Amino acid sequence: MNPPTQMPSRLLGVDLGQRRVGVAVSDPTGTVATPLATIEYRGPHHLAIELRRFVRETGAQGLVIGVPVRSDGVEGPEAAEARTAAERIGKALGLPVALWDERMTTRIAERTLIESGVRRRQRRQVVDCLAAQILLQSFLDARALAKERAG
Fold first, then answer.
1. How far is Cα 105 from Cα 137, in angstroms, rounded to an integer?
2. Burial class, 150, CB count within 10 angstroms (exposed 0-12 / middle 13-18 / buried 19+)
3. Which of 12, 39, 59, 110 has the smallest count of CB within 10 Å of its CB?
4. Is the four-CA dihedral 131, 133, 137, 139 of positive or negative sign?
């Protein structure tokens, strides 16, 4: 997946999950991602309401939503579900959406928390928003590199 270089600077990163959704936000320049929150998933309507609130609070002008790609690079049914959810969320919020490979983000977040000595119970509460931060930072870094190469 190539990052669209025309996305706005201030973005929300969204790591969709069956039970929890991680959310991160970029700084106004679109350079650094910061974990924002973990939302308990209660259905698409509730998720849209929560994301709309974060958009208002942060001034985000676009979304980066993770697509679960398998380690062999193949997209399975989960990726199709994420693409459908991303399309619905984008329409509900009236914002541009970029899809980004979220492969390994949760695993990296979990490993980071373990190495930092965070207990299992606490890890469950923050792993999703940390995964969203890793997802969004990866997108921001790739976009910056693409812009640099384009000159």
1. 11
2. exposed
3. 59
4. positive
The domain limits of the chain are 11-150
Tell me the torsion sign for CA atoms 77, 80, 86, 92: negative
- Rounded CA-CA distance 145/59 in Å is 24
CATH assignment, 11-150: 3.30.420.140
Q: Which two tokens stand for residue 117?
A: 């000595």
Contact partners, residue 36, CB within 8 Å, separation at least 6: 12, 23, 24, 25, 54, 58, 129, 132
| 8 Å CB contact between 127 and 110 | yes
